[in-house]
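Exercise 3.2. Students should predict the tertiary structure of the chain below and write it as structure tokens, then compare their answer with the key that follows.

Predict this chain's 3D structure.
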Amino acid sequence: MKAIKLGNFGRVGLLLCVGLALTATLSAEELKVSNLSQLTASFASAEPGDTIVMKDGVWRDAVIDFNAAATALAPITLRAETSGKVKLTGSSSLIFSKPYLNVEGLLFEGGAIEEGSVITFNSDHCTLNQTAIINYNPEKFETQYYWVMFNGNANKVLNSYFEGKTNKGPLIGNADLNARYNIVSRSHFKDMPYVPEEPNGNGREIFRIWGYGHADETGDDGAYFTIEYNLFERAHGEGAEIVSLKSNYNIVRFNTVRGTRGGLVGRRGKFNTFEGNFILGEGLNGTTGIRLAGSHHRVINNYISHVEQDGIRLISGEYFAAPLTDKWTPKKKVLAKYLQVTHSYIAHNTLIDVGESAINLAHGYKAGWPGLQQVLLPEKNVIANNLIYQFGNEAIEMAIQDKAAPLELFNFDENTFVGNIAFAGKNPSFQSVEVTFVDPKLKASNSGLLMLSNNSPAIDAATSSYLAIDLHGKHRGEKRDVGAIEFADKAQIHRPLVAANVGPNWMK
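Answer key:
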């Protein structure tokens, strides 16, 4: 490897950057505050690189507008004197109003606000770390607000904990405009009750990610939101969508979902990725796997087991260009209810004992017909090298097009099936030469997952595989196995997450 040579200007620029960062570090101060007036004053006096320390104790009705002037080389940090010992309650809230600000170690518990969000990112390049929000609920269910809202770019929520949200509104939201490249990682979402008796309970997703693509825009932009390495335990919320992507170019990867109603959903938008997630339904009512509407998605290396509904569900799209009958009554004025699923890649997933179909193509076909024109079958999708092990339910379900008038007008291209192995315990209703119906011979692992035994027909059986890494982060080699997990005695980088792997250190 050749060394990179810097010109004189490059050397000077590099030395200047290092010098500025070192100067900021050496001159940084720790400012200790014990009440809200001191805290507010410290934002005006803080210099880049400083740390502001909030005294341990209860801070009631503290509306913190964090607006100190930091820089990329020298962020300003606001932290608890002792992590978890600064308790914000009453109507307390936090706003990031300027860039390059960090907050660490706070506890929001037992309070409530009237609207908006408990924590709001109104700027860019800010980080919330090692923080918890617990039971921060209003008296009335109808009082709606977020717990965290992203209105800026390149912000992060890391190693945090969220428990017990009971009111209307999503827990975490991303704004429709000017909110891109935000990240939530290594956080724990726990015990969000499902409230079936509430008629207006819809819209209580744990994540609602708006952005470009929400209104079916055709351009090449998106929210670029990343949801990774998070643990969801009984985080039911609305009971239908745990994660609801309503924009383009988002990534949902390496998360673990345990016993949580709903699923991971690409609701609107295109080019969204669901990768390496463990969805463990534990047989609970209302659990599902991954649902898709829209185009150009990737669903790869996911392990989905014991959910009550479908494992992977491709929803039938609504034809919206013109009325097919005089009884059409669009649910939305300018948008189709669901976009057609096309050009998506669904590969190397393992699906175990799901309550309905492991893979369902065209769920909801002709549902509500003719008032709803949900008649667009998925087409031009690739379903490759998936491993299905069912205990009597359907392995693959695909709707058959109704050719009666006026639906004979539609001609759909085929979906491509390559290298899939399925075992359903009964005669399958779906037949394809590219789905081998054979017992994959699985065995239980120490983690509780079913994996390939040494005589599994899935070993080295993948066809046209593009995925070099498996669910556990292991290299697949030249000959690749069907399903999410390679048969190989190698170190596992990704495993199902437990509480010890996520959330604030001070809670462990």
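Discussion points: DSSP finds two helices and 42 strands in the chain. The two ends are 44 Å apart (CA to CA).
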